[in-house]
Structures are given as C-alpha cells and as structure tokens.
Amino acid sequence: MPDQPEDPASPAPAPAPPGPVEFRVDPRLAALKVAGAVIFLLLAVVFRGDPGRTAFAAAGGALLGGYALRDLIAPRRLAADADGVTVVVGFAGRRRLAWSQIERVRVDERRRLGTRSELLEIDTGETLHLFSGYDLGVPVWQAARALAALAPPGLTTLPDPG
Questions:
Q1: Which of 29, 128, 141, 144 has the fewest CB atoms inside 10 Å of its own CB, making it the most exposed?
Q2: Is residue 141 situated within a structural domain?
Q3: Which helix (H) or strand (E) holds 122?
Q4: What is the pLDDT of residues 1-24, one digit of tens each?
C-alpha cells in the first residue's frame, strides 16, 4: 500500500545498472588543431619565396590538418555499454568488442624525465587499444572507473587514488 511507511528491515532495492557511456575528443582541442593548421598554411603562403620554409610550414599544416580531420570525422573514440565496447581503429574506423573478447582494461601510468603519461589500455590478447586523456576528453582514470561499472568483475584494474 502506498500510504503505509516502508519497513526498515526490508532489503534495499537493487541499484539500477549503469547506462551506456561514451568518450569523445574535446571540441576545443579539435578547434585548436584546425586553427594551428590554418596558421601553418598561412605561413606557407607568406614564405613562398623560400622553398625550405614553405615546405616546412606546409608539412606542419598538413599534419595538424590531418589530426583535426580525424577529430572531426570520428570524435567519439570509445563507447561502452553492458554488452561491450566500441573503439576507433585506424584513421576513423570502428570496431565492436564484446566484454568476452577483452582480457584486461587498465590504466598505464609512466613517469620519465619529470613528466607523467597515462593511457587507458583495452587488451584483447590480439590487439591493444590505447587512449589518452586527449582522446577521451576526461582523465583516463575516470574512463576506467566508468568501464569498470559496466565490465564483468575482475576485468578492469583501477588506478590507486592519489
């Protein structure tokens, strides 16, 4: 009956399963790459009298433009739900991986020469998919926790806080 108070001894309702999550490149980063490519290409025009500088500026513009194009074509790098994950492969392709295909999900942290890098690793045994915080738009540990909530127990190695 809705008018009766709940019995405090009754078990709590089971929590709802987590919903699907997706991680994408920050649009500001893609815009920065486009702006950088435009600046390099403008420098190529300014330096058109000097073949070395023109080639260097054009190569820089083409490289940044290629990275920006990938961010615009495939901004969603990783998506996960209760059945598995979808990852970007190659330039802009997608591959669906069931949780049963994945051997391990972990955060790889490396410290060297005063810098620290963190990568989210999704290991299938045959392929290794690596994602940086720039790819995901969030810190990699945050993505690892979201995947751990969806993945079967024991599949995800969470980083130590701190």
A1: 128
A2: yes
A3: strand 115-123
A4: 445 555 555 455 545 457 789 999
Helices (H) and strands (E) in the chain, counts: 4, 8
Structure tokens at 85: 């994950």
Residues 98 and 46 in one domain: no
Judge if 28 and 95 occupy the same domain.
no
Residues 62 and 83 occupy one common structural domain: no
| pTM > 0.90 | no
Residue-number span of the structural domain to which 82 is assigned: 77-162
Q: 57 to each of 31, 44, 132, how far by Cα in Å?
A: 19, 5, 27
User: What is the number of other CB atoms lying within 10 angstroms of the CB of residue 61?
Assistant: 20
For the four alpha carbons of 133, 134, 135 and 137, in that order, the dihedral sign comes to positive
The answer to whether 48 and 54 are in contact (CB under 8 A) is yes
pLDDT at 6: 52
